[in-house]
Amino acid sequence: MDLVPALQEPLKKVLGPATAKVMAEHLGLHTVGDLLHHYPRRYEERGQLTHLADLPMDEHVTVVAQVADARLHTFASAKAPRGKGQRLEVTITDGSGRLQLVFFGAGVHKPHKELLPGTRALFAGKVSVFNRRLQLAHPAYELLRGDGEETVETWAGALIPLYPATAKLESWKIGKAVQTVLPSAQEAVDPLPESLRAGRGLVSLPEALLKIHRPHTKADIADARARLKWDEAFVLQVALARRRHADTQLAAVPRVPRPDGLLTAFDDRLPFTLTDGQRKVSQEIFDDLATAHPMHRLLQGEVGSGKTLVALRAMLAVVDAGGQAALLAPTEVLAQQHHRSITEMMGDLAEKNMLGGAEHATKVVLLTGSTGTAARRQALLDLATGEAGVVIGTHALIEDKVLFHDLGLVVVDEQHRFGVEQRDALRGKGKQPPHLLVMTATPIPRTVAMTVFGDLETSVLDQLPVGRSPIASHVVPAADKPHFLARAWERVREEVAAGHQAYVVCPRIGDEEDDPKKAGRKKPAADEADRRPPLAVLDVAAELGRGPLKGLKVEVLHGRMHPDDKDAVMRRFAAGETDVLVATTVIEVGVNVPNATAMVIMDADRFGVSQLHQLRGRVGRGSAPGLCLLVTEAPEAAPARQRLSAVAATLDGFELSRIDLEQRREGDVLGQAQSGARSSLRVLAVIEDEEVIAQAREEAAAVVAGDPELTGLPGLRTALDALLDEEREQYLEKG
Q: Rg of the Cα trace of the chain?
């Protein structure tokens, strides 16, 4: 059954081409249904003013406020040399704080007539700072007048929906457009099964749409949001439940390691004992590998919890059982690093058919975009004949030319960098679907794992191996206290003097290509112009070599270097020949140099919480304690500083990921930010709505088990099609 045509009606037919064009280009809204699902971000009461002190900088805001005073100034300028230039300054207030509005030129006449002291209005614009005062330049505004029939009380108490808006289309204009299409809400087809809706006491979808756009009371808003959260959680969980169900229908080759094979030989050589967590998770994986349908498991763990070792044991188990295993890494640096550490861990077990190779040995090959022709030809041959049991590579492994003898297990490192399609392409290289193990080094709260990785079973490693050292983290406020930064460089020298090494991380490279002047990129917007560009590896390395770290061996590492040069730099650093490595985030994952004990992160406020946690995990990997210094020029009260303080205060990645998610929009969490698609979550907050997500997962599993094709639920099928439409590149796409 098709969606009711009223909701599929293109907006240009209903609202006119000009408005529809702005809605499509700036808000991604194309149909009446899209607009009905563009929910208000919050509500203001007409009689109440917005608290102006809490306005976020550099964001497009809509506020309800009262005009305190308005002054018209004349001035001379290039365009008006005879002192005929005009500037209108209007001060608005919420009773405690004040905000300046400015209008220039011909734009002053209308507001000068309308914005009289005492007038209340909605104002929309981007908050910036001028002369140390908050201001909105040329804001759009809509006067709030009480209509004749309304009493003062009903007028003052009315709820004004404020919509996610853009500079091109103010909230009140979106509100008027919504009122135009609101009658169509009556025809919305309900995706929730009637029994579920009745059992949970949820209002119908048409009623929820009416109440969210035109609430009479705050209770109306609560009813609508409760219902719409269920729609989002349930439809998404049904999509994931169907993926899980489809996977259980596939046949896979069970892989059971032989008792005295490669895995046993490897375990016997380990110079340490596995942690309880590593044993438990390994057992979960071995149990999955032994079944006749493909394993789909997410292995998440703290930075440095030994995920690679667990994954390697799974790969060796599959080789023991006659199959091959592939490890897919997101970057060449990481693929080379994995290859080096795995061949070192395996020793002669990785030297099949070589002089001195062990009895149960296999071949471990590396395949990346920069592998030389001869080496590539040999690697491809070893994979096709089954000579190589383990292959480590980048997405070069997905290319058509790569053929496996019997691919039994795919391990994907850093899942969020690989999409579902890439996973599927590699899985398609097995005679039967191979088992899949996904590793992520960014710990994910349970609810997010259920929402984003809902088609995978989850294993968590939360213990650090014995011998790992604690990491002390401190914020270095370079602008407020320059002597703290000087002390940071002294600490680096002290670590080097004690025989250790250090990393310095910068947000950008600093060569020609990312210099905006030389690359011909557009200039930053006026409000960004006063913020200096992020510090660059090449500049910082040169400065440190001349100044605070003079006399130490300083090298650079970044993503645009030739792969051989990158590898050579990493080898010298790993061998202890380099004292300080100045790098971009290429060192973020997997780089393992136990002798590196200190890290200084420049412009730390320009990195995300999980990225900082990842970076910090590169130190303290040996027996000496680690030190991480987060250098920032952000003022003490700024949210960026609070974020850095949170990172410095805890080493618990799960706790940090919660903080991170609470500060970011869900759209980023669900991987939509990279693909440019809008987040499909509009009212569901992944962290807050833990219970709804867990309940929706149970309900979805029950519905799919009873009716996998959803033949009896046409409304749900329609909602699923909308969720997984082509244009949105699959909502479950994680890259």
A: 30
Q: State the pLDDT at residue 343.
A: 92
What amino acid occupies position 474? H
Q: Which of 501, 529, 480, 488 is nearest to 634 (CA)?
A: 480
3-state secondary structure of 298: strand
Residue carrying the six token digits 């110079």: 271
At residue 516, does pLDDT exceed 60?
no
Q: 216-220, 353-357, 447-451 — which one is most confidently predicted on average?
A: 216-220
pLDDT at 151 over 50: no
The candidate with the shortest Cα–Cα distance to 136, out of 104, 96, 102, is: 102
Confidence category of residue 505, pLDDT binned at 50, 70, 90: very high
pLDDT number for residue 81: 62
Which element (helix H / strand E) includes 476? Answer: strand 471-477
Please, are residues 716 and 205 in contact by the beta-carbon 8 Å criterion? no
Sheet holding 626-632, edge to edge: 471-477, 626-632, 596-601, 501-505, 580-583, 554-557
Two tokens, residue 169? 């289309």
Q: Which of 578, 645, 564 is closest to 605 using CA atoms?
A: 645
Q: Say which residue the tokens 């706790």 belong to.
A: 655
Q: What is the DSSP letter of 365?
A: E
Smallest CA-to-CA distance from 361 within 409, 320, 399, 308 is with 320
Beta strand ranges found along 246-317 (DSSP E): 296-301
- Write out 488-519 in H/E/C secondary structure: HHHHHHHHHHCCCEEEEECCECCCHHHCHHHH
Buried b (16+ CB within 10 A) or exposed e, 680-690: bbbbbbbbebe
The reply to whether the predicted model has a pTM over 0.70 is no
What would the two tokens of residue 446 be? Answer: 């349970």
Three-state DSSP class for 630? strand
